[in-house]
């Protein structure tokens, strides 16, 4: 049963990481007027956002988690992406770019919480009401 719980956390992190990279790269590809970022920038920024967001999901109490995590991820993603101007060479983005990445990340966070964070409270191995 413990292996299943570890696999669930690993899957949750992989999904979060992939979706954060996709969010940054989606805005970079389709909205070039707001800034320039390449795939390397998207991978680095997505990794930072995913790790910080995953740790925040583990720390914030589950009762507040849905509302607070969406707001925290929106602000966190916007700040991390805009800070990329200063620590990633060749990246040049505006605040509009950063806020739209934050909004996309917040939308993904709603799906992520419904699929992984809320279900991590259920006991492993016992059938739930939907099974």
From TrEMBL:
Transmembrane segment boundaries: 12-33, 39-60, 67-87, 93-112
- Source domain of life: Bacteria
Keywords per UniProt: Membrane, Transmembrane, Transmembrane helix
Output the InterPro entries linked to this UniProt entry.
Answer: DUF2512
Instruction: Spell out the Pfam families in the cross-references.
Output: DUF2512
* Name of the protein: DUF2512 domain-containing protein
Identify the species of origin.
Tumebacillus avium
User: What are the top taxonomic ranks of the organism?
Assistant: Bacteria, Bacillati, Bacillota, Bacilli, Bacillales
């Amino acid at each position: 049963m413990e292996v299943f719980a570890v696999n669930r956390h690993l899957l949750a992190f992989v999904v979060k990481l992939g979706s954060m990279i996709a969010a940054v790269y989606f805005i970079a590809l389709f909205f070039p007027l707001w800034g320039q970022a390449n795939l390397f920038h998207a991978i680095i920024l997505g990794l930072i956002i995913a790790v910080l967001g995953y740790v925040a999901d583990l720390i914030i109490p589950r009762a507040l988690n849905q509302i607070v995590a969406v707001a925290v991820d929106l602000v966190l993603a916007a700040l991390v992406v805009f800070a990329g101007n200063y620590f990633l060479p060749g990246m040049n983005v505006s605040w509009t770019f950063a806020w739209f990445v934050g909004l996309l990340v917040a939308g993904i966070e709603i799906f992520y919480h419904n699929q992984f964070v809320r279900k991590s409270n259920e006991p492993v191995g016992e059938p739930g009401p939907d099974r």
